[in-house]
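One thing: could you explain this record?
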Amino acid sequence: MLVEDTFGVQRVKLPAGSMVLYPATSLHRVEPITRGTRIASFFWIQSLVRDDAQRALLFDLDMAIIRLTREHSGGDPALVSLTGVYNNLLRMWGTP
């Protein structure tokens, strides 16, 4: 599968049973199969946060929280605070 987004064209080839998620604004196409059978399923999901830039900020913040949590276990007060900021932004930017 080829997915074209703001980062260019990305080639995606995953093991059977895997899933690919990409924004509806991305163009995609699948390559012809050379052996076997392709069985596919597709569906659409909608984010609670409509704005792309806000979703990107939440993603970056969440990834930083995850990395810091791995490095500093034990309920570090700064991590608790950052997690609160993440959740408050999600509540503020999420659609009701």
User: Anything to note?
Assistant: The mean pLDDT is 90.
